[in-house]
Amino acid sequence: MSSSPAARPASAVAHRPLSTVEDQLVTGGGDPLTERLWRAHIDRQLAAFGALDPVVPRPRVAAHDPYALRGLVFIGLVAGLFAAGADAPRRLAAIFAPDTGRTGIATDIAFDAWITPPAYTGGAPIIMAQARGTIPLDPTRAIAVPAGSKLTLRIDGATGPRVERQKLDTGEASELAPDPDAPAGAFSGEIELGASERLRIFADGRKIGDWEITALPDVAPSIAFDGEIEETARLTTKIPFTGGDDYGLVAAEAWIRIAPDAKEGDDPTAEDGDEEIVLNLPLTGKDPKNLKSAVFEDLTAHPWAGLEVTVQLNAVDGAGQTATSEQRRFTLPQRHFANPLARAIVEQRRDLSRGPGAIPRVVAALEAFTLAPERFDMKGAVYLGLRSAYWRLMQSRVRADVTGVQALLWDIALSLEDGGVTAAAENVRRLQKELQKAIAEGASDAEIARLTEQLRQAMRELMQAMAENAPPNSVPLVDGETIDAQDLEAMLDRIEEMAKLGAKDAAQELLDQLQSMMEGMSGPMAQPSEEEQRLAEQLAELNRIVKEQEKLRDKTFREDQKTEQERADSRAAGEDRKMADAQDQLEQNLDGVGRKIEEKGGETPKEYGQAGEAMDKAEKALRDGDTAEALAQQEAALEKLKAAQDQARKALAAEQKKNGGTRVGRSMGRRNPNTDPAGRPEANGPIDNGSVKVPTERETQRAREILDELRKRSGEQNRPQIERDYLERLLRRF
Fold it and tell me: How many other C-beta atoms can be found within 10 angstroms of the C-beta atom of residue 668?
């Protein structure tokens, strides 16, 4: 009987032969007749395969999906391919690619893998796999890391772990040899990624990692001049530069050498450093990978000053790669000497830098200088110095001998020109740099004390030299503030104390202020004008009032913090009345300063009146026992007084500039005791330059007391060990 087309199989072959060949004999095995019958049945089904014809599939999906939702599958596939971008073909092929092992991590395998970039990159480690499968692994994951990175693998609890490596550029394959000391079932290895490669990690018949790692080569650094080399108004050499690196520069230098045509023969006895000047270029900036800065260096004291030189820049990155710029020619700035003999001596000193060929000429010039010392009004020390230079040069055999003569000639020229002020200032600068370095590197208290004492002695010598060469009655001023040796030594004491307390930033800030003050003192000395003296006196009196007002405010604050009983005892003892009388006296002193200004034809600043009103209100509040209100009014008075201070400083600085700049000379007496070593009022709050807080005297004393107490407790053996360990950590300097 024939069946209808709808009921008949599409292949027109009955009994499903494709499925029949997979059937198995359930019973009757071992019976020859049964097995022959079963084999005949299978052969008949296999013969039916020849009647099978391919047919068009008829899934009849439309009958079950009338709304055509199946189209969403194709839309999703297209969207996925679009999102994968260039990686789409590889991902699509991975679906149909056979895999020799299953991918994934068994829960009983501990697998850790991470990549550590080179230290100079500053990059954080990249975690590839961690613990027991807690981070899913993507077998197609591609990673780009800096060349020289290290991949560390740790596998534990696995059978037959192995790592296959394949170079992406050459296709060379190899296996990573595990640590021979690793226990059974464990794998430990490290790979330095010098080139791109593919890694496959297997364990327990599973592929637990498959990554393509691209090693990115380090880009060579760059450095170049960013404009012309210039001579500044203060005879400083300015070298602008620009440079960069993909991970930032670690060093940059400017190499300065005498121009070839300025030499008179090479000196084979020259040592390292004799043939070039090396300046370290600053590498600080908002973006360390792209620098744009300049180095300023005073080279007027160098023997090459006045000679034509070549300048070349060099940069080094973290990978050790270097870059150099073009060479540029430049004439080093030289100091201009007014004394004719000093000028002639410096010229001979400069000629010695040209090479051995200049020595006979310089020897003849030195001998000529000393033939008639009375003609040059030459002092005995200068004459003896020149004769010493003559004989040392006559007996010179190596470059070091010539260098010593050049140093001697420079000292002689400076003594003729300014009485040794410049040499003393250079010594101060050198010791300041040494002290800065010691504080930054956390040197011992003994080392800091030694350098501080040396700097203190050098500043005394500088102040003495400046005083001996200053005009009579000249006033020591730096940016409008009086200054003398006691001021500088007081600041040095503070720097040493900050360093011992471990406040490195505060010590460096004070040292920077000291350096600025010393640099400001190197200006020309001249007689102060009458207006300068008037403004300086006004500022000194105002500084004293501010200091006294701050002391009174602090006392008022302490009174305000007392308990009710303690306040009652203070009132009974008359403390409120004493503070009110002191406030009234300060107000009268401020009125006196205003009257002096008006007597000399000036106009009293409005801040004086506003401060006086606040002082008056503070006095009344103190007499009423209202310390909180008095404290608020005292703060308001201080605000106005400090505003007046700023105006007075600016007026004094402007007057100085108009009359020729900052003047420094012998002190006309001790500085005002109510100003800090920089001539500023000793504010109760910290000195703030916007970045570092310099503790006040009160804060320093409190820190010292806390530090002493910590040291005392850490030495008490009866305290628990855990407590003493904690105290040691507190005392440790970071």
Answer: 15
Q: How many domains does the chain have?
A: 5
Name the domain boundary from 331, 349, 383. Answer: 331
> What is the Cα 257 distance to its own chain's centre?
30
On whether residue 79 sits in a domain, the answer given is: no
On whether the pTM is more than 0.85, the answer is no
Q: What does 62-88 look like in DSSP terms, one character per residue?
A: HHH-TT-TTHHHHHHHHHHHHHHGGGH
The boundaries of the domain holding residue 307 are 222-331
Let me know if residue 157 belongs to a domain: yes
Q: Which residue has the tokens 């198995």?
A: 24
Nearest alpha-carbon partner for 645 in 550, 554, 579: 550
Q: Pick the closest to residue 642 from 684, 681, 585 (CA basis).
A: 681
Other beta carbons within 10 Å of 423: 19
Dump pLDDT digits (tens) for 546-602. Answer: 888 888 888 888 888 888 888 888 888 888 888 999 999 988 988 888 888 877 777
| pLDDT tens, residue by residue, 115-159 | 899 888 888 888 877 655 444 445 456 688 888 899 888 888 777
Six-digit token string for 281: 């270029």
- Identify whether residues 241 and 198 lie together within a single domain: no
CA–CA distance, 619 with 622 (Å, rounded to integer) = 5
The CA-based angle 124-125-129, given to 5 degrees, is: 145
CB 161 within 8 A of CB 155: yes
